[in-house]
Amino acid sequence: MRSLNKLSASEVRHARKGKFCDGGGLWLYKQDDGGGKWVLRVTVHGRRREMGLGSLQNVPLKQAREEAAKWRALAARGVDPIKERQRLAREAQRNLHLLRDVAADAFESRKAELRGDGTAGRWFSPLELHVLPKLGGVPVSQLDQLDIRDTLAPIWHQKASTAAKALDRLGIVLRHAAALGLDVDLQATIKARALLGAQRHKVTSIPAMPWQEVPDFYASLGDGITELALRLLILTAARSTPVRLAALDDFDLETRVWTIPAEHMKGREGKTDVFRVPLSAEAFRVAKLATPFARGGLLFPGRKGPMSDMTMSKFMRDRDLDFRPHGFRSSFRTWAEDSRAGPYEVCETALGHTVGNKVERSYQRSDLLEQRRALMERWGAHVTGGTGQVVKMVSG
């Protein structure tokens, strides 16, 4: 008598209601309406287990035998096949997390490390714009280097910096997925980079307006909120982020000092030391002109929250200018150098740059506020059409 494969396909098809053994613990439970289901009976650690293998309509005889053989082999090793199948199902469900969801969770967990809790969107935007539209619906466990290569290849050379950031952020997302217990290929981004090859890209500086042209541009600006923001940015040589996030409470009207929180300053995230900016007479006037626009405590509000990161750049593009707002920092620094406006450390500190090595900074703890105040007053005079000529300053 055969111990396995006792049933034929014909017997399975024409069997009436009842239970029919195919051998090795595989049973067919047939119903009145012609339907049925497969059941595997095994014994594990002296305990009898009955495991459903699917309906007769969906699982033919050959497939039922293959499934039965697989689960019998586990039972022979002392593994409960029902519990193992449940474990595999949980793992499969866990690994169905989509890339877009894991990326959002990774971004959320890193907000505390980012300037302004990531409100500018610079951390997430490379993923949001160039990766998630194509791969966001892919389960993170199925993501491989070919998917990544094909997604970033169109911008790998044309938008080299953005593509590199997108690849770097994706690597962080994969490590986040692994920390969640998901089965991912942590080497996928490394292998994708190897497939993409070296980038044909030359780093170019942000276009800066020559300092000689700044007065004419400044004179052309009106008193709208965007133009006032640009005015303050030019006069203080600040980056766009501190200007956009400037709060009314950050301005001291008596001392004419704008205090920028550390989290709004590049390179000072996670630190406690603020950066004080002395306001020239013109910068102080601009800040007062902007006050009526204030909303929600912000000096330069946007429709929702602070002014958009692209507002000032768009204003300059609409003027058909190749220059960018950030370039005014270079305009200021070049003016200071060409005009011999002051000592190196004063000019660099005015830009918020760290000057000197760690030992030197431990002894020099002054932020050179008063020296910078004189420097920014003369820069303001130049910007507003004055001579901008300075006498050589002595390091304090």
From TrEMBL:
Keywords: DNA integration, DNA recombination, DNA-binding
InterPro entries xref list: DNA_brk_join_enz, Integrase-like_cat_sf, Integrase_catalytic, Integrase_DNA-bd_sf, Integrase_DNA_bind_dom, Integrase_recombinase_N, Phage_int_M, Phage_Integrase
Source taxon at top rank: Bacteria
Residue ranges of every copy of the Tyr recombinase domain listed in the record: 204-376
UniProt similarity note: Belongs to the 'phage' integrase family.
Protein name as it appears in the record: Tyrosine-type recombinase/integrase
